[in-house]
Automatic annotation (TrEMBL):
Keyword Transmembrane: no
Listed name of the protein: Ethylene-overproduction protein 1
GO biological process: negative regulation of ethylene-activated signaling pathway
Domain of life: Eukaryota
Keywords of the record: TPR repeat
Pathway(s) this gene product operates in, as recorded in its UniProt entry: Protein modification; protein ubiquitination
Tagged with keyword Kinase: no
């Protein structure tokens, strides 16, 4: 029988070891007040120290009673920790307002963007792709955003746009976090190459070509300087005879050819051939024009040779200043390009940036700007850089040099928000972003994000002002921010009315009901949250609210069941923390430790208990209440978790193993694979970079670099890394990487046979059962593609023998192809029984049974994971077969409202087409093509529907 743990913990007094100066004071109502924000000191640290001291004292006594006593003490410490930090409360889990653009009708907005994209001029496509980036930022798939960013860079016209987009692409890959890699290193593709970004001109076809830049600039420049110096000296005697005038600077006389100097610019031409007195003089006093004798001699040489490569940088700076004063466009351009070529790190950028701004040197400023952007976020910690970007004066100076843009401040503000959301730097960059906004969507985004940041800073009046500005610009979703700001300022009824009118005026969405639930109580609140989940089952707040409500009623079992619903398909730190909280209250410390370890894998800096206790501290507390595990024990646990398809449990085990052996790159790599499976792409890439940094050998490092390149869209480069690794040492992972990338790059039969050879080579190399099981499964899949079904069965069977449970699904597919549906169904049943997370298993089993059983399985799959699209498509197809067209459309529309998937949109377009609703069919096709412009079936349908629509127009 469940005891009243909540009542017990609220009645506990603080232990003696925590007396003295208190950081967290516990009041009679059980609420907690804090006087510190660092998360390290106070009760948490004291509890931890007390626990560890108890642990040390108990080591001298090894009898059972002593161990039992220690466990009791540790449990009491955890209970007191939970009581001191306060149990989860409903008012502390309010939902966050999304920071991205959120149109009221996402499908219509996608269709509109696609139409404008197709109709815009070639030079305007980069701007259109940037708008698409802003729309895709709010979608769960980060690859869509990066794909648009790459397209924007592909079509960039001017140097400024190329510089910013190239830096942003690199920032998304976090290449600068790789040890031994400089921010200015070229990755091999011109799209991200710092040298290519500074090349003037528009050539989208070359952006995907391998980069041919030279990295060792100093060596090249030195050779070229020697050649120029020798050339100029050999011609000195002949030139002396041609000189027909002199410039006098102090005591120095610089002999020149009047015609050459006059050809530098119109002002020089007027000076030397006009109606001025100087025009007839052989010697002209030039002392008061701010140039030295050496500088003027260099100008004379430039007038003959048209290059500056033989001069020192300070001389070129003098020439640049002279070129500005006398409008020498060619000389300015050459000096600008030369100085830009000297910028390669923060020191050189800081040295030359002010010169570039003073002399309005477009390329030089671009080169310095590029360094600052590629060093983000660290460069913003430099007060000079921060002052330039954040201040209005700095923005104006950049604008004068041609380098202030919405794009620049969009990138800077996103990097600042990731670094420190509430900082003054973030606010000022967003303000500059708003000042640079010219189009409606740009103003909506800038003002909305300013409102969100102000809300996080608890500056509610300013937050409301910015949200209102965003609404005025056309961003209706910002009404949520206005309502929240009013609520925070004590106007709950006004907030409720605002959300109520929003629901009345627009097609209701889950987020609308979720927000309105914030401003009502009791049954009305529960009904709104229920409706929110029904309209959008991916919203986490309703699950969290219901779980905490049940916990407050001391129904911890149902509370955990409720939070399990969303953790089954959408893993997030806040939900894991909530479940850990409940498990600690139930004294199920092993489960709590699992969740905290998984949570810290997602976010290593996460602070528990409303930002009061570092996650790593809680791990130490919990570890003393569970059975200690050696590394060998952990490997056994990992096999068990992996074979039961328990990805969260596997994450926790890997986290434990890394704590024992933090330098193990193989474990980091395993961690990244698990995170990718859980759709935690950002955390996965972080683990993969750490694996690369910790690699003990060159061949291992190349493999991890290959996976990084593959995951960011560079498949050919990934294959090259795999081949480089194999040339050093044949290894399982190198062959597996090459096979994996090739199988997706070249799906033809000849390539499939080569992939089979690669996987067979991989299996001959040493590895553990977890990876060999995956390789066997992949090999079997390729055998199926080339119609070698018996070979596939052997591979899947071997994979199952080493506990690769997912092989049941592949084996079922083979049985289905051999027309053995009963065996296929049985295999999937085995997978359902073994797998902890089995939504995909239910979905796949539905293919091997009759309609009614299939509907039952798909219903279960949707219940377990509402993000899976196949069940919606199947149900809609069944309804269409039953001539229930309206119901079929409604089924797809319901799913599209929270998951705008291009397959769902394509199918709904086809249904609209079959019903004769060509307008809706065209809209859905355009929205689908905005998500994937190369989808052949949608393109074909779009063209056919457009043709029929034209035929129906009156002549």
């Amino acid at each position: 029988m469940q005891h009243n743990i909540f009542t017990t913990m609220r009645s506990l007094k603080m232990m003696e070891g925590c007396k003295g100066p208190q950081v967290y004071a516990i009041n009679p109502s059980g609420t907690t007040t804090t006087t510190t924000t660092n998360g390290f000191g106070g009760v948490g640290e004291k509890l931890l120290q007390n626990l560890l001291s108890n642990s040390v004292r108990s080591r001298s006594n090894h009898n059972y009673q002593a161990i039992q006593s220690k466990d009791e003490v540790n449990s009491a410490v955890l209970a007191e920790a939970l009581a001191s930090y306060g149990l989860p409360k409903i008012d502390q889990i309010e939902p966050h307002i999304e920071f991205c653009l959120k149109p009221m009708n996402f499908v219509e907005t996608l269709a509109d963007v696609y139409c404008r994209m197709e109709g815009c001029a070639q030079f305007g496509k980069s701007r259109m792709f940037l708008e698409q980036c802003a729309l895709f930022r709010g979608l769960p798939d980060p690859k869509l955003f990066r794909k648009c960013l790459m397209s924007a860079r592909l079509h960039a016209v001017d140097v400024h746009t190329k510089v910013v987009l190239s830096a942003w692409l690199r920032f998304e890959r976090r290449e600068d976090e790789l040890i031994g890699v400089s921010a200015m290193d070229c990755c091999g593709r011109s799209m991200e190459c710092p040298g290519s970004a500074l090349v003037v001109g528009y050539n989208p076809e070359s952006a995907t070509d391998p980069c041919m830049c030279h990295r060792d600039r100093g060596k090249d420049t030195g050779i070229y300087m020697d050649e120029e110096c020798s050339t100029s000296s050999s011609r000195g005697g002949d030139e002396e005879e041609d000189f027909d005038m002199s410039f006098c600077i102090g005591d120095d006389e610089i002999r020149c050819r009047r015609f050459n100097i006059a050809s530098l610019s119109r002002p020089f031409e007027v000076m030397l051939y006009g109606s001025f007195m100087d025009s007839r003089r052989e010697k002209i006093n030039f002392s008061k024009n701010g140039i030295s004798a050496k500088g003027m001699k260099a100008a004379e040489m430039f007038s003959r040779m048209k290059n500056v490569d033989s001069f020192d940088a300070d001389i070129v700076l003098e020439l640049l200043s002279l070129a500005n004063k006398y409008c020498c466009d060619e000389m300015k351009s050459v000096c600008d390009a030369y100085l830009a070529s000297l910028v390669f790190d923060m020191d050189s950028a800081m040295l030359l940036f002010e010169y570039g701004l003073e002399e309005n040197s477009y390329l030089l400023v671009a080169a310095c700007l590029q360094v600052f952007l590629r060093e983000l976020p660290n460069s913003m910690h430099n007060p000079n850089v921060s002052r330039l970007f954040c201040s209005s004066e700095g923005k104006d100076r950049l604008a004068y040099a041609g380098h202030a843009s919405f794009l620049l401040y969009y990138f800077l503000s996103q990097a600042a928000m990731e670094d420190d959301l509430k900082s003054n730097t973030t606010v000022m960059l967003l303000e500059r972003m708003g000042e640079c906004a010219s189009e409606s969507w740009q103003k909506q985004l800038a003002f909305h994000q300013l409102g969100c940041v102000m809300l996080e800073r608890k500056e509610y009046k300013d937050a409301q002002k910015w949200f209102e500005a965003a609404v005025e610009a056309g961003h209706v979703y910002s009404l949520v921010g206005i309502a929240r700001s009013k609520y925070k300022r004590g106007h709950m009824y006004k907030a409720y009315k605002l959300m109520n009118s929003l629901i009345s005026d627009y097609t209701p969405s889950g987020w609308m009901y979720q927000e309105r639930s914030m401003y009502c109580q009791g049954k009305e609140k529960a009904m709104d949250l229920s409706t929110a989940t029904e309209l959008d089952p991916t919203l986490s707040y309703p699950y969290k609210y219901r779980a905490v409500s049940k916990a407050e009623e001391n129904r911890l079992g149902p509370a955990i069941s409720e939070i399990n619903k969303i953790l089954g398909f959408k893993i997030s730190p806040d939900c894991l923390e909530l479940r850990a909280w409940f498990l600690i209250a139930l004294e199920e410390y092993e489960g709590a430790l699992r969740d905290v370890r998984a949570l810290l894998t997602l976010d290593p800096r996460y602070v528990m208990f409303h930002g009061k206790l570092q996650g790593e501290h809680l791990v130490k507390l919990l570890s003393h209440n569970v059975q200690p595990c050696s590394q060998a024990d952990c490997w056994m646990q990992l096999y068990d978790r992996w074979s039961s398809v328990d990805d969260i449990g596997s994450l926790a085990v890997v986290h434990h193993m890394l704590a024992n052996d933090p330098g193990k790159s193989l474990l980091r790599f395993r961690q990244s694979l698990l995170l990718l499976r859980l759709n935690c792409h950002k955390a996965a890439m972080r683990s993969l970079r750490e694996a690369r940094n910790q690699a003990a050998s060159e061949h291992e490092r190349l493999v991890y670099e290959g996976w990084i390149l593959y995951d960011t869209g560079y498949r050919e480069e990934a294959i090259a890394k795999a081949e480089g690794s194999i040339s050093i040492q044949r290894s399982f992972e190198a062959f597996f990487l090459k096979a994996y990338v090739l199988s997706e790059t070249s799906p033809d039969s000849e390539s499939s046979l080569y992939v089979i050879q690669l996987l067979e080579e991989a299996l001959r190399c040493p590895s553990d059962g977890l990876r060999k099981g995956q390789a066997l499964s992949n090999l079997a899949s390729v055998y199926v593609d080339v119609d070698k079904l018996d070979n596939a069965i052997d591979c899947y069977t071997n994979a199952l023998n080493i506990k690769h449970t997912r092989a049941h699904q592949g084996l079922a597919r083979v049985y289905h192809l051999k027309d053995q549906r009963k065996l296929a169904y049985d295999e999937m049943t085995k997978l359902i029984e073994k797998a902890k997370y089995n939504a995909s298993a239910y979905e796949k089993r539905s293919e091997y049974c009759d309609r009614e059983m299939a509907k039952s399985d798909l219903s279960m799959a949707t219940k377990l994971d509402p993000l899976r699209t196949y069940p919606y498509r199947y149900e809609a197809a069944v309804l269409m077969d039953d001539h229930k067209e309206a119901e079929a459309i409604a089924e797809l529309t319901k799913a599209i409202s929270f998951k705008p998937d291009f397959q769902l949109l394509h199918l709904r377009a086809a249904f609209h087409d079959s019903m004769g609703d060509l307008t809706s069919a065209i809209r859905d096709c355009e929205a689908a093509l905005c998500l994937d412009s190369n989808h052949a079936d949608t393109l074909d349908l779009y063209q056919k529907v457009q043709q029929r629509a034209k035929e129906q127009l009156p002549t």
